[in-house]
Design brief:
This protein has helices at 3-10, 51-55, 61-72, 90-93, 97-106, 129-140, 227-236, and strands spanning 23-24, 166-168, 174-175, 184-191, 199-207, 214-222, 243-244, 255-260, 267-268, 273-277, 282-290, 298-299, 302-307, 314-322, 335-343, 347-355, 360-369, 372-379, 390-398, 402-410, 438-444. By secondary structure, the protein is of the alpha+beta class. The protein has 3 domains: 3-30 and 316-444, Jelly Rolls (Sandwich), CATH 2.60.120; 51-150, no CATH class; 170-312, Jelly Rolls (Sandwich), CATH 2.60.120. Helix 5 (97-106) packs antiparallel against helix 6 (129-140). Residues 1-54 have low confidence and may be disordered. Bound molecules: heme C. Heme C binds next to helix 5.
Length: 449
């Protein structure tokens, strides 16, 4: 099917304005839907310690704190992990006990930007009110060790994908190559998945090579009709295989397949669900390098792909909903940008990927049906360093004849400038100092799309 027709069906305007789409780029001042009252944390797996011994003896590392840290912190706070210190032993945790309590009380740790009560996501990182209280009590009572002989353990939240069907490997070690005077380098690696038929991507895991310079990884597929454009880009960049691709892959209609940022777990859409990769497509892996910590560093990042067996029950598509017509005036601390689209048909939403740059303050997506708002995702304190591909526990059915609205708020005041810059009028763009108001939706591809 012609690529453009895909857009007709959903009318995800703002990215493409398609005749006949009803779209509204203004307004959208409605309130986020009613949010249920919840306590500070979601319910997590049983972490081992029983309530009775908590009520009786003192809170100790081995009986109470170890399972909490293992379930919620150690995935990052481990040797070689992305956090700057480890939390995987009593010796490591004891000296920082007070800091741990402060971090969980303030909500800064574990990092999990989506607001509770708006969307139920997989792999939620959250500690319960009870766990927070235990860490505080432990810190305030001198961080006692307890008895290692009957230590409780926690569950590390990992995704085991097994043997990949294909490993996307550029085939060479890349040497970071930022433009003159800069520290950021975006490189697109072109890899042939050698498909003799259409395949469907069920899951993937990025394996960053040099984690002191790899900032993010985005994986796209580019259909056969993009081949000559890719060739052109590769010919332009003679410094290494692939091509330089600041901000985006520079193709006319690439399909986003998934991505990785620090802290994300492997993306797994689940059995019998997948995004189509057309036969004859190339994979384009965009890696954003930030060379600050290792100037001249080399990297060999790979992505492991897992396909469904045959055509899956649910074919997924990842499509952008975006307000590209941004006008964020210099000095404006309260800039609000919205975009709405009217859905002619019901849609099953499997995930969301909200995205802004450094001036972003908050971002949310909701749908409105018969005057009722339903919140889909809400990130009240946008943090550029903690982005994610958020998959719902269960897909959300957005009814037909509803309006989906993305709202982005920006602070372009002098106090909120990155790297000590002076405020300037900011518009849509791929540079880190430009802005975006964008949310990818991961949806079940409706018939005919
Ligand atoms: C997804 C990865 C990740 C998880 C999970 C995580 N941390 Fe962190 N943590 C980091 C990173 C990265 C830093 C350093 C940068 C920063 O502060 O954001 C950090 C910093 C900290 C700090 C330093 C001060 C602060 O608040 O930034 C403390 C304390 C901390 N973490 C405690 C915890 C505790 C306790 C848990 C579990 C309840 C936890 N972290 C879970 C990644 C993580």
């Amino acid at each position: 099917m012609a690529a453009k027709n895909r857009w007709m069906v959903l009318c995800l305007a703002g990215v493409l304005s398609v005749a006949g789409c009803s779209s509204d780029n203004g307004g959208g001042s409605g309130k986020i839907g009613e949010q249920p009252e919840t306590d500070t944390g979601s319910v997590e797996e049983d972490t081992g310690g029983s309530d009775e011994d908590a009520a009786q003896g003192p809170v100790t590392y081995y009986q109470h704190i170890k399972p909490i840290l293992e379930s919620n912190c150690v995935s990052c706070h481990t040797e070689g992990g992305i956090a700057p210190f480890v939390l995987d032993s009593y010796e490591a945790a004891k000296p920082v006990a007070g800091g741990l309590a402060t971090a969980v009380e303030s909500g800064s740790m574990p990092p999990w930007p989506p607001q509770e009560g708006c969307g139920e996501f997989q792999h939620t990182r959250a500690v319960t009110a009870d766990e927070i209280a235990k860490i505080r009590e432990w810190a305030d009572t001198g961080a006692p060790e307890g008895d290692p002989a009957n230590a409780a353990s926690g569950q590390v939240d990992t995704v085991e994908l097994g043997e990949p069907d294909f490993v996307a490997d550029p085939g060479f070690d890349y040497v970071g190559n930022p433009p003159e005077g800069g520290i950021d380098d975006y490189h697109c690696f072109v890899i042939d998945p050698q498909l003799d038929q259409d395949r469907f991507l069920r899951a993937f895991e990025s394996i960053p090579g040099n984690d002191s310079i790899v900032h993010h990884v985005l994986l796209y597929s580019a259909g056969p009709d993009e081949a000559s454009r890719i060739q052109e880009l590769e010919d332009e960049d003679t410094s290494s295989p692939g091509y330089t691709c600041f901000g985006g892959p520079r193709l006319s209609e690439p399909t986003l397949l998934g991505g990785w940022v620090p802290g994300t777990v492997p993306l797994d859409f689940g059995a019998d669900k997948g995004i189509r990769i057309e036969q004859g497509s190339k994979l384009v892996m965009q890696v954003h390098y930030n060379m600050l910590n290792d100037p001249g560093g080399t990297d060999r990042t790979t992505v492991e792909l897992h396909y469904t067996d045959g055509t899956p029950d649910v074919e997924l598509a990842m499509l952008p909903l975006a307000q590209t017509n941004l006008n964020i005036a210099a000095g404006n601390a309260e800039a609000v940008e919205t975009v709405s689209i009217d859905l002619p048909i019901p849609i099953d939403l499997y995930g969301v990927v909200p995205h802004m740059h450094l001036l972003g303050k908050s971002i949310d997506v909701k749908y409105t049906k018969d005057g009722q708002d339903t919140c889909l995702v809400d990130i009240p304190e946008w943090d550029f360093d903690w982005q994610g591909f958020y998959l719902y526990k269960d897909p959300v059915r957005i009814p037909g004849s509803s309006r989906v609205t993305l709202t982005c708020k920006f602070d372009n005041s002098p106090e909120n400038q990155p790297d000590g810059r002076t405020p300037r009028d900011v518009t849509w763009g791929e540079g880190t100092y430009d802005e975006m108001c964008l949310n990818y939706v991961i949806i079940k591809r409706p018939p005919g799309l």
